[in-house]
Amino acid sequence: MTLDEIAQKLSLVNRTSIGIQGREVTGGYTGDLLSCVMAGAQENSIWITIQAHPNIVAVASLLGLSGVVVAEGIDIPQETIAKAEEHSVPLLSAQETSFTVSGRLFQMGVSGTGRTNQ
To answer: Has this prediction a pTM greater than 0.85?
Structure first.
């Protein structure tokens, strides 16, 4: 599935000028603690969070994520948007909660990525 397909189906708003067409999404990760995201999210995943500070861009760029969804209608500061554009990291916004966005992604066939307890 691609990021633009997800954005359309979930009514996400692209807050950057970065094109999202054709960006492959191979899984998803939901979390707000950056260290957990760094340990658990995988390349080409979509990350759902309520964090909106510029450090989310650094994490997404480092991991090669397909995009970041800032949920719950949280305002994304212009500083974060500028950093995202500089690093080619799409930032999308959702009015729904992280839980709802994650559930809808799962229903669409986007599986979770990250650590599993064994």
So the answer is: yes
Is position 36 within any domain?
A: yes
The pLDDT tens digits for 76-99 are 999 999 999 999 999 999 999 999
Range of the domain at 82: 3-107
Residue 35 lies inside a defined structural domain of this protein:
yes
d(Cα 22, Cα 85) in Å, to the nearest integer?
17
CATH number of the domain residue 41 falls in:
3.40.1390.20
pLDDT digits (tens, 9 = 90+) for 15-67: 999 999 999 999 999 999 999 999 999 999 999 999 999 999 999 999 999 99
Q: How far apart are CA 110 and CA 61, in angstroms?
A: 20
Structural domain count of the chain: 1
